[in-house]
């Protein structure tokens, strides 16, 4: 792995570390038991394949920095700003861990 790839990997990890707690918090409001189960996996350093797919879908749906103005939409409000680059970081991070996206 080159120095550039290592830095990209660390940057992806920082994005994931910022967004996964937001995802888990949102999940907890809808399914507390599942959120606890996934949080335990997350703390152990893994995610089940189904949870990885859910994270992929969630981060894609929550991109808030779209370049659209209010008249063009979409308006995706939430507790964290999620850019298209953040989405790509999460996708790379999951793929690097063997998850199929």
Question: What would your notes on this structure say?
Answer:
The protein has 101 residues and is mostly helical. It has one domain (3-65, 77-97). The protein is 66% helix and 0% strand. The protein has 4 helices and no strands. Helix 1 packs across helix 4.
Oligomer: single chain
Number of E-type strands:
0
Q: What overall geometry do the principal axes of the alpha carbons give?
A: globular
- The residue-averaged pLDDT reads 85
Rounded to an integer, what's the Rg over CA atoms? 14 Å
Helicity range: 55-70%
Report the β-strand fraction as a percent range. under 5%
Order of helices and strands: HHHH
- Which ranges are low-confidence, i.e. pLDDT below 50, for 5 or more consecutive residues? none
Task: Determine the number of helices (DSSP H or I, runs of at least 4 residues).
Answer: 4
Distance, first to last CA: 22 Å
Q: Sheet bearing the most strands, described?
A: none
Number of domains: 1
Structural class: mainly alpha
Q: Which SSEs are present, and which pair or pack?
A:
Elements: H1 3-30, H2 32-44, H3 49-61, H4 84-96
Compact summary:
By secondary structure, this protein is mostly helical.
Keywords:
101 residues, 4 helices, 0% strand
